[in-house]
């Protein structure tokens, strides 16, 4: 797996600005906020740490990891030392590079306060083994509540997804674009295309996002991702 | 959807304030755990029919542009038919009074002078009394909880008070569920538009910008949302205009001869 190229330089959105305000009270090296309703539909919010966001991409590719567990169970995952707990996610462990800097990690669900559905995840990480304390987890829980309200509000106003309606090529939707291309070339539906994309990314030691970007940049032939055709 | 299958609460509140308070608290909790607007509406209308004195059927109606009424949940065909009649005739409590008043009571639909066309066809509904409760108003759009009773003057002041309490709970729960749905729908729409762009890029060798421009142009031409066109394309592999053209072509073509 390659490291994310150059990071994501976009200025922080409101969610990450809220995180900045709490950072001093909790203390972390990295933070990412993802709007999502499950593994298939996922939007890393601008200003998220590129290393954590990329690791989230990897979890989406493999359908495994602490973020995936949070979405499945609706409960937070707290890890004093990721390396000591990585046996929980063996495929993810195998795909994560040795140089991955994160040690202590907290991943919390963003839960719509009244209706109760998960609208995203908050991930905060420390590059040393410094476990999050109970009061710090309390603050993170309050932060997650606040972020959920911001995400729900910005979704309702349309701000969160405005890019999807207004922007053509640069809205960070490379995975879904390549799914459409693959579905068209294979004559299949998007779920079959996703299975092919996942399989190719896994065999290449990459993420579906990296593979999609490489295809769109013209550096990888779509036929290689499509794989053999039967019948 | 028809919600008769959902069942009704185990006890009617009748005139007992304590029982009513218990039922309303139960309703609030139930509605808050319903994560889709459809589930909120189904549960709310079922419980309203059970709790409001005089109610024998109910529906939740969504009005668009003060013209079209869509029945979002109903406990009986009669409640659904009242919505259809109001849309067809262009008059009825949901199309005017409910925009202004939190509660509109009709004691005898057949004798109602405010909506004479509707009154003339009241026998089709088979219910004499109507209690129309406002859920929300957003410009020319409205949501209303409509309750129906067989007998004339089936609804009393007590019915109205209980109905307004229920409507308030339902409106809050519905607003929450709609907000949550915005997030889920936004994520889905974003991916659908991306997939549609990919299909067009692959099919016509377009750039991402060109593919999006093509979707936008079609959206303007057909007066449909980009995401609806994208969903059609992702689902069927065809653009809506092409489907229409194909149908026209088919209908104009001579029937196939013997092989």
Give a structural overview.
The complex is a heterodimer of chains A (231) and B (259). Chain A is α+β, with helices and mostly antiparallel strands and 231 residues long. Chain A has two domains: 14-163, 2-Layer Sandwich (Beta-Lactamase); 174-226, no CATH class. Chain A contains eleven helices and five strands, in the order H-E-E-H-H-E-H-H-E-E-H-H-H-H-H-H. Chain A has a five-stranded antiparallel sheet with strand order 2-1-5-4-3, sandwiched between helices. In chain A, a hairpin with a 6-residue loop joins strand 4 (104-111) and strand 5. In chain A, helix 9 packs across helix 10. Chain A is globular. The two termini of chain A are 33 Å apart. The model of chain A is unreliable at 1-8 and 163-170 (pLDDT under 50). By secondary structure, chain B is α+β, with helices and mostly antiparallel strands. Chain B folds into two domains: 4-179, GAF domain (Beta-Lactamase, 2-Layer Sandwich), CATH 3.30.450.40; 182-251, Winged helix-like DNA-binding domain superfamily/Winged helix DNA-binding domain (Arc Repressor Mutant, subunit A, Orthogonal Bundle). Helices cover 56% and strands 15% of the residues of chain B. Chain B contains ten helices and five strands. In chain B, strands 2-1-5-4-3 form a five-stranded antiparallel sheet, with helices on both faces. In chain B, a hairpin with a 2-residue loop joins strand 4 (129-138) and strand 5 (141-149). In chain B, helix 1 (17-32) packs antiparallel against helix 2 (37-51). The A-B interface holds A 35-37, 40-43, 112-117, 119-120, 151-153, 155-156, 158, 160-161, 163-165, 167-169, 171, 173-185, 190, 216, 222 and B 32-35, 172-173, 176-180, 182-184, 186-203, 207-213, 226-227, 234, 237.
């Amino acid at each position: 797996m390659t490291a994310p190229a150059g990071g994501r330089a976009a200025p922080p959105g409101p969610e990450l600005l809220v995180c900045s305000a709490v950072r001093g009270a909790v203390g972390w090296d990295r933070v990412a906020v993802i709007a999502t309703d499950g593994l298939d539909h996922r939007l890393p919010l601008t200003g998220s740490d590129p290393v954590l966001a990329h690791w989230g991409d990897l979890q989406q590719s493999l359908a495994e990891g602490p973020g995936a567990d949070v979405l499945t169970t609706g409960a937070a995952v707290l890890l004093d030392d990721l390396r000591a707990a990585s046996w929980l996610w063996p495929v993810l462990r195998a795909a994560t590079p040795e140089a991955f800097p994160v040690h202590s990690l907290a991943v919390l669900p963003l839960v719509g306060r009244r209706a109760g559905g998960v609208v995203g995840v908050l991930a905060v990480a420390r590059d040393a083994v410094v476990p999050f304390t109970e009061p710090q987890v309390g603050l993170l829980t309050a932060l997650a509540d606040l972020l959920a309200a911001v995400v729900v509000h910005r979704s309702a106003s349309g701000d969160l997804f405005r890019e999807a309606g207004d922007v053509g090529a640069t809205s960070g939707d490379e995975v879904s674009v390549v799914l459409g291309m693959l579905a068209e070339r294979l004559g299949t539906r998007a779920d079959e295309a996703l299975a092919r994309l996942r399989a190719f990314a896994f065999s290449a030691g990459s993420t579906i996002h990296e593979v999609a970007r490489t295809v769109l940049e013209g550096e990888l032939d779509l036929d290689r991702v499509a794989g053999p055709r039967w019948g | 959807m028809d919600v008769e299958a959902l069942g009704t609460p185990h006890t009617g509140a009748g005139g007992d304030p304590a029982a009513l308070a218990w039922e309303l608290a139960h309703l609030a909790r139930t509605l808050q755990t319903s994560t889709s607007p459809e589930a909120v509406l189904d549960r709310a209308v079922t419980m309203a029919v059970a709790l409001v004195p005089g109610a024998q059927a109910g529906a939740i109606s969504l009005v668009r542009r003060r013209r079209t009424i869509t029945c979002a949940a109903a406990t009986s065909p009669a409640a659904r038919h009242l919505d259809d009649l109001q849309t067809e005739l262009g008059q009825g409590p949901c199309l005017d009074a409910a925009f202004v008043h939190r509660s509109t009571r009709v004691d005898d639909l057949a004798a109602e002078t405010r909506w004479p066309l509707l009154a003339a066809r009241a026998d089709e509904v088979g219910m004499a009394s109507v209690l129309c409760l406002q859920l929300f108003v957003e410009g020319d759009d409205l949501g209303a909880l409509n309750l129906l009773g067989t007998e004339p003057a089936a609804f009393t002041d007590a019915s109205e008070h209980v109905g307004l309490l229920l409507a308030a709970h339902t409106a809050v729960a519905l607003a929450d569920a709609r907000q949550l749905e915005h997030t889920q729908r936004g994520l889905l729409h974003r991916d659908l538009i991306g997939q549609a762009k990919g299909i067009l890029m692959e099919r016509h060798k377009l750039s991402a910008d060109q593919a999006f421009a093509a979707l936008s142009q079609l959206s303007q031409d057909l007066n449909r949302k980009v995401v609806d066109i994208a969903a059609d394309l992702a689902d069927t592999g065809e653009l809506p205009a092409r489907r229409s053209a194909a149908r026209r072509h088919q209908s104009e073509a001579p029937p196939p001869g013997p092989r």
